[in-house]
Amino acid sequence: MAGLYIHIPFCASRCIYCGFFSTTNNNMMNRYIHAVTEEMNLRKHANIIDTIYIGGGTPSQLSSQNLVALFKSIYNIYNVRKDAEVTLECNPDDVTEDFTTLLTRLPVNRISMGVQSFSDKRLSFLHRRHTSKQAMEAVETLRNHGIQNISIDLIFGFPEETIADWEIDIDSALSLNVEHISAYSLMYEEGTQLYQLLKQGKIHEIDEETSLSMYNLLIDKLEKSGYEQYEISNFARPGFRSKHNSSYWHEVPYIGLGASAHSYNKTHRMWNPSNLTTYIQTIESGRLAYEQETLDLHTRYNDLITTALRTKEGINLTDMKRHYGSSLYQYLMNNAHQHLQNNNMVIEDEHLSLTKKGLYISDDIMSDLIYI
Cα separation of 225 and 107, whole Å? Predict the structure, then answer.
């Protein structure tokens, strides 16, 4: 089995926090879709495709012709399971009657929507194009067209945001009764406009105590409402975990197509250039665009630490010892000892995982367990 990810870098406008490769120059959209199709032909795999994820950027900015052509190519070139999870990312303001009618003609069975906040003030701060009302209406429109698997993204920890503000956002999300919620602390990534505002002293990060309180509030309210926290930032109704994203955390191979997309096959990691022109011209010349690295044992161990530990299940210690050897197993256990003692980690049924207390300092814990 394998996952298939396709990166669509086009956006109508750029949000100030986004660190993903994207562009507001949509003039090359048709040519780009042709290049992605050609990359599929260059990278035919025998794997059965278990999940498909069209991300970005803003895939919902593609024309109906390009979306239809893209899915036609996927299903003509790859061996896709009949019950594959097929996710399309979209912006709330793109969810029109015409767009959702188009979805009924496509194999899409899951929508991931970047809501981020239900405060118009905070949405404006992020330079999001939609309003809170449009986000609410988008979910209703998707429901009316038969979409029964909807995920929304939220952000917390805005400058000057209070816990009460965040609780309103959580309650608004819960009122939509969606199947999946992803929630992330606002990140100040170098190279973004948000990062520049921080460095210029025009905005200030919230304090760590408030951020922790917001995270704990999120966990408590979502769990009481029937959502399972199956990964640090992801919550799902029973049976609605993201299968595609779960593949990243459980060492399932995945194929990444398009500019900046990454691939993984257990022995190698590959990545395409984060440059639209370079990507398109390379593919059009009949050559693959990606660079790759061979993953040695220690690199694969470090990948295990930074992925599996994000999940509710954590690391299967029996499998870990069998696949990585006694030496790395002992290294892991020695370095995990202090966190087990401090109740930041726990071992249950031969699985090493983070406790609720350890979730908030997961980066520090993973850093301690990484092989240097």
Answer: 30
100 is written with which tokens? 């959702």
Number of helical H runs and strand E runs in the chain: 14, 15
Asked if residues 86 and 110 have their Cβ atoms less than 8 Å apart, the reply is yes
Structure tokens at 165: 């503000």
Q: How many Å apart are CA 79 and CA 369, to the nearest integer?
A: 38
- Specify the pairing of strand 351-354 against strand 315-316: antiparallel
Other CB atoms within a 10 A radius of the CB of residue 80 amount to 19
Structure tokens at 359: 């979730």
How many beta carbons lie within 10 A of that of residue 273, not counting itself? 17
For residue range 262-288, what is the model confidence (pLDDT) as tens digits? 999 999 999 999 999 999 999 999 999
Query: What tokens does 341 get?
Result: 């003692």
Burial track 331-361 (b if 16+ CB lie within 10 A, e otherwise): bbbebbeebeeeebbbeeeebbbbeeebbbb
Give the pLDDT confidence of 234-264 residue by residue, as tens digits.
Answer: 999 999 999 999 999 988 999 999 999 999 9
What DSSP line would sit under 12-81, residue for residue? SS--TT--S--BS-GGGHHHHHHHHHHHHHHT--SSEEEEEEEEES-GGGS-HHHHHHHHHHHHHHSEEE
Residue 44 has pLDDT above 90, yes or no: no
Give 227-273 as a DSSP string: -EEEETTEEE-TT---HHHHHHHTT--EEEESTT-EEE-SSEEEE--
- How remote is the C-alpha of 150 from its chain's centroid? 14
